[in-house]
Structures are given as structure tokens and as C-alpha cells.
Fold:
Amino acid sequence: MSSGLEAIANELRRLQRDGVNRVFVEDDTMQLIVPKKDVVARSRLPDLQSGRPAQNPKLPEEGKDSPTPPVKSVTKTVTTPKVAPLPESPEIELPEGDAASQLAWLKDRVLACEVCKEHLSDDGKIVFGTGSSQADIFFCGEAPDADEEREGEAFIGKPGQLLTKITSAMGLSSENVFTTNILKWRPEHNKPYGNRPPTLDEMRFCLPYLKAQIKIIQPKVIVALGNTTVSGLLGHDPARKMGSVRGTWDQFETIPVMITFHPSYLLRNGTLKTKRMVWEDMLQVMEKCSLKISDQQRGFFLPKS
Ligand code: URA
Structure:
């Protein structure tokens, strides 16, 4: 394997360990990964048209005696593209009223946001979030993907379907949860395929919308899905490793935050062990919300003895 390709593989492995679920690949790097005639390398790549991961994406084995990789170019691979700085974050003053009417007011406000609209692709929709204004559990992702942008609904693509499976296994319905993202639009990029994570600046701009949603709903728990969400919600800390903070509690304003892996990460790393890790996080959430937990639920994803 060329040292460039190996360096990319190593960097992707490191990101994967940290719970990063999507990367944005620059054209130069794409050339390295998919040299024009390298059919074998192509078969390992995500489906570029849909942006979905390959069925069995396998990173090449780490070479023991490999030369030091050109990390600089690889680091560039995974940084987000340059996005023009956004204006000041909006100021939200909620009107008087009950939670349902405040949430409806806020939704209209967000749907009318000129900055959000400016960043949509043709036919794209702003994604406000869905669920109950009385929800005890507030699931927060980073930003809509293509499926969500097309329909204007959060978490309806493959990761969203997995999230629905998780909430059903917790015994929850749409009455008990609210599901949204920090960013209310799909981060645009100049590629015909794939998704890119939102920048800190983009998340900073939309944070007041999220804060207002949380203020209205007053959930008992926020579940932060994935590394980028944790940065947007709790502040960016380059030293923070998803592997260390996953399964721990933090706090957003006064609300407890459970940090867990993003469902996209689970889709790509759905080992029994990873599923159990996320499930244990959900058991903690259920306990915090005083939900009844059956023995069967306690045993989900434990290895069979
Ligand atoms: N990933 C997210 O973070 N949010 C969505 O709504 C869909 C995918």
C-alpha cells in the first residue's frame, strides 16, 4: 500500500476510534484513495452517489514497519472546507404561552430564518426537529443529511431509522421524545455526493434555536449523539476523545446530557460490543428519567453465555 494511502487509513482509524462518523474528503486526497484504475480501492469506499458507507467497509490492516505517513496532507483531508463566517447568532425572545404554542412559534421563526434559507440547496428544506413539546428525552444530532433536507424532517434516513429502533427498544414513542439537530440546515459543500459535518461557526449560529427548543421542552435528559454534536453543545475541546467521554454525564445549562455514539457510527461499527455500549448509555438515560427497565431490556446485546 502506498504511504499516502496508509496514512489516510491510519487517520481514518484514529477518527473512527474517536467516534467521528463522517469525513469530508478533498479532491487531492480522493485521487490518492481512488487512483483512476484502482478497482480494489473503489470497492472499499463508501457509495459515493448516496454518500452511504460501503456494506462492509474495512480499513486496511495497520502495517507494522510502515514509513512515517505524510500526516499533514491527511489532516487536511478531514478538516472542513472553508465556509464564509456567519453573522451574529439570532436573539430569541419566546412569546408567552404554553409549550406547544411556543414551539410552533419557534418553528415558524426558524423556517423564516434568512441565513438558514440561504444555505439550503434547491428544493432543500430547513429541518426544525420533531416530537413532543412535553418530551422527557431530547435527542440531539449535529445536522441534517440529504434525506432529512429533502423531507424537512430530522433523522429519517438510515441513522434515523436506527435511532427509532433504539427509542422503541427503550419503550418510548414520539410522545416521550424530541429529535433535532444543532444545525437546522444541511451543511452544503461542492460535491455531488456525501455529507460534511457542520463547522463550529455554523453550530454557533444555530445554537440559540436549539437553546430555545430546550427551554420550551425542558426535557429531563439531552442525549448528545456523536463527537461533533458534543462540540457544538458543550464547547469544542480538541483534547476530548469520544472513547473517553461516551457513557458519561455532562450538563447543558441545567439539563443533564448523556454523551453517546452517533447512530451513523453504529451503522458502520455495529459490533455487539458497540451496540451494548450505546445500550448501556440508554439504560442510564432510562434510569435518570425513572423509566421502568425490564430484565429483558437490561440484557440486550450482552454476549450469550
Ligand atoms: N445525522 C444527524 O446528525 N442528524 C440527522 O437528522 C440525520 C443524520
About this structure: Residues 36-79 have pLDDT under 50 and may be disordered. The domain at 99-298 is CATH 3.40.470.10 (Uracil-DNA Glycosylase, subunit E). The longest strand covers residues 255-260. The pocket of uracil is lined by residues 141-145, 148, 154-155, 157, 159-160, 181 (CB under 6 Å).
